[in-house]
Amino acid sequence: MMTIKYLNKLRNKYKDDCLSCESSALIQHTIFTGDRQVKNVALGSEHTICLATDNTLWAWGWNEHANTGTDGGDCVSFPTRVPLDIDTNTVITNIYAGGASNFIITNKDQTKDEPIVTTVNNILEQS
C-alpha cells in the first residue's frame, strides 16, 4: 500500500479555487491499492504527476488544458490514474511536468534502439 501526502490547495490561472476543489490548504493523505511505491514525482505549474514502481502514472491538479491527462474536468482534486495505452513491455523510465504539459521517457524502442520521448496527451490521442 502506498500513501502520498500532498498539499491540496488547487488554484486556476486566475488564482481562484478550482470549482470542484473545495479543500483548504491542508495536507491530505491518499492510499493507493496494492503494493505501489513512488518511483518519481514531477511538479507542473499547477498540477502534479507521480510514477509508481508498477509502471502506472497518477496525476492531480488543475486540468483546464488536460494538464493531468485524465478526464477529470477542470480540476482533479486527488491522485487519479492516467489511462495510458502502452503495452506491458514498455517501461516508463522518467517523467517531467511543466506549464500545462507532461512528458514521459520510456525504455528503448526495440526497432530503432533509442529512447521514446512523448507527451502524455500524445499517448492519449493515439488510444
- Shape category: globular
Helix coverage percent: under 10%
Q: In terms of quaternary structure, what is this?
A: single chain
- The value of Rg in angstroms is 15 Å
The sequence of SSEs as H and E is EEEEEEEEEH
Distance between the termini: 29 Å
Strand content: over 45%
Structural domain count: 1
Tally of helical segments: 1
* Spans of at least 5 consecutive residues with low confidence: 19-25, 122-127
Task: Give a verbal description of the structure.
The protein is mainly β. The protein has one domain (2-126). The chain has 1 helix and 9 strands, in the order E-E-E-E-E-E-E-E-E-H. The chain has one helix spanning 120-126, and strands at residues 2-7, 27-32, 38-43, 47-52, 57-62, 75-81, 92-98, 101-109, 114-119. The strands form 3 sheets. The protein has a 4-stranded antiparallel beta sheet, with no helix packed on it. Strand 8 and strand 9 (114-119) form a beta hairpin.
List keywords for this structure.
Reg_chr_condens, 4-stranded antiparallel β-sheet, 127 residues, 6% helix, mainly beta, RCC1/BLIP-II, 3-stranded antiparallel β-sheet
Q: Could you give a quick summary of the protein structure above?
A:
About 5% of the residues lie in helices and about 45% in strands.
Itemize the secondary structure elements and their pairings.
Elements: E1 2-7, E2 27-32, E3 38-43, E4 47-52, E5 57-62, E6 75-81, E7 92-98, E8 101-109, E9 114-119, H1 120-126
Antiparallel strand pairs: 1-2, 3-4, 4-5, 5-6, 7-8, 8-9
